[in-house]
Amino acid sequence: MTTGNRYLPSVRETSAYGRSTRSSRHRRCVLPAAPDFRDYGRMASLKQFEPASGTRDFLAAEHERRERAFATIREVFGRYGFQPLQTPAFERLDVLTGKYGDEGDKLIFKILRRGEHEATGETDLALRYDLTVPLARAAAAYGSQLPSPYKRYAIAPVWRADRPGKGRFREFVQCDLDIVGSSSPLSDAEVVLALHDALDALGVPEFRFLVNSRHVLFGLLEAYKVPEHLGSGVLITLDKLDKLSPEAVVAELVSNRGLSSEVAQGLVDDLTSPDAVERIRGELKSSEMGQVGLAEVDRLLELTKDAIPAERIGFTPNLVRGLDYYTGIIFEVVAPGMPGSIASGGRYDGLIGRLGGKDSPACGGSLGIERILPLLNQADQDSYSQIDVAVTVMGEDQSADSFRLAAEIRRAGVRTGVYLGSSGKFAKQMKWAGDQGARFCVIYGKAERDAGTVTLRDMDSGEQVQVPLDQAAAELARRCAPSS
């Protein structure tokens, strides 16, 4: 990080800590107290070199593993005709607030105002909380320039001022796809199918879609005669059924949400019963809104049944999805071995209109890649290879020749590295080649130079062959080419 960078934002969460750099008309970062580099031992004991809580560093092997997953997701989303969209890492605060509910708004990372306003401690910008609201803003801004319906995907980091835990981070990547401009249930089905195919292509085992509709939930509140002004809070509490015991949820509905004990107990009993689907369908017979919701769920299941096995998708009445902007179908994806959901989404008609643009129907979903990666087969993680070919430097007088040879091999399309150490010992250079994960080592010493050849060593078998110097690059390209 360059300390003089005028574009560095000063980020503050609700419980921010640390001190600020000197006053400036430019942006300033809120940083912890400057470390004392004279006392390395004390720094190490205080974990000064670890990344901020809820964030991570990714070394080469893990970075490559993540990039392979992103490439798989992009390929699947592109196969469905979704287009990429990139938006800024931060948005105006007024764009983000009021879109995620009271609980979500508390988790927005806010950015202090700059210049003459910085002493006030006020905020006007914020790091993006998700990729959906920025999409809605972009759709409102560029609506006339976009195709209709507009199918977009985005793979980018988002930030939450959350308490880190297993599978939960303050900075993480979301992989989103959305359809703007279509109110057809076909668009809901296409989002679900694309996410299903992406999870399948990644190799996520035994995942399952849990499907519901906000209309089902509103119909349930109607059937239980929950006053309209209490409805939003009741749904927020019901959304905790996967985290709290039924008894705790009932208690919160009574003490915090104003429901009677009888109504609270009845709601929770119906939603957590083994025959919840049948109970809820029965309760909703008297609710017109509830019937609309059930029809949405049934239509989605009908449209996806030929592509998604029945054991991988089903109506789940106790699924709530706490975000305020959902208006119709909602869904989450769960998998054994990971608490919470690994993907989620739904329909959010009206969000673009709330941002001031032309009102457009929309739906979408998001893959939680941070929760997905731990579920995948990690057998390839230790086999990371930085280069395919390692070129030795057997003497100072041959270093230019080694660099020239490496350049020829790279031009042939092969990842190639040159030994940069100071030791001319053959054993040490072989160890370096092995540490780099090289498949072949090129040995070019005095004997090879005199003969006009190079020695190619297979790093797995130890077999060595000599080839003419002018054929070395082509031969290595052939040997390193992916097998068909």
Account of the 3D structure:
There is one protein chain. This protein is α+β, with helices and mostly antiparallel strands. Helices cover 37% and strands 19% of the residues. It has 18 helices and 19 strands. The chain has helices at residues 40-45, 60-79, 93-96, 101-105, 132-142, 185-202, 214-223, 228-238, 246-255, 261-272, 276-283, 288-304, 351-354, 369-372, 399-411, 426-435, 446-451, 472-480, and strands at residues 11-12, 19-20, 30-31, 83-84, 90-92, 110-112, 123-127, 150-159, 171-180, 208-213, 313-315, 329-335, 338-347, 362-368, 389-391, 416-418, 440-443, 453-458, 464-468. It has an eight-stranded mixed β-sheet, with helices on both faces. A five-stranded mixed β-sheet has the order 16-15-17-18-19, sandwiched between helices. Strands 1-6-7-5 form a four-stranded antiparallel β-sheet. Helix 15 (399-411) links the parallel strand 15 (389-391) and strand 16 (416-418). Helix 10 packs across helix 11 and helix 15 (399-411) packs across helix 18 (472-480). The longest helix has 20 residues, at 60-79. The protein is elongated, with a radius of gyration of 28 Å. Residues 1-34 have low confidence and may be disordered.
Chart the SSEs and their pairings.
Layout: E1 11-12, E2 19-20, E3 30-31, H1 40-45, H2 60-79, E4 83-84, E5 90-92, H3 93-96, H4 101-105, E6 110-112, E7 123-127, H5 132-142, E8 150-159, E9 171-180, H6 185-202, E10 208-213, H7 214-223, H8 228-238, H9 246-255, H10 261-272, H11 276-283, H12 288-304, E11 313-315, E12 329-335, E13 338-347, H13 351-354, E14 362-368, H14 369-372, E15 389-391, H15 399-411, E16 416-418, H16 426-435, E17 440-443, H17 446-451, E18 453-458, E19 464-468, H18 472-480
Parallel strand pairs: 4-8, 10-11, 15-16, 15-17
Antiparallel strand pairs: 1-6, 2-3, 5-7, 6-7, 8-9, 9-14, 10-12, 12-13, 13-14, 17-18, 18-19
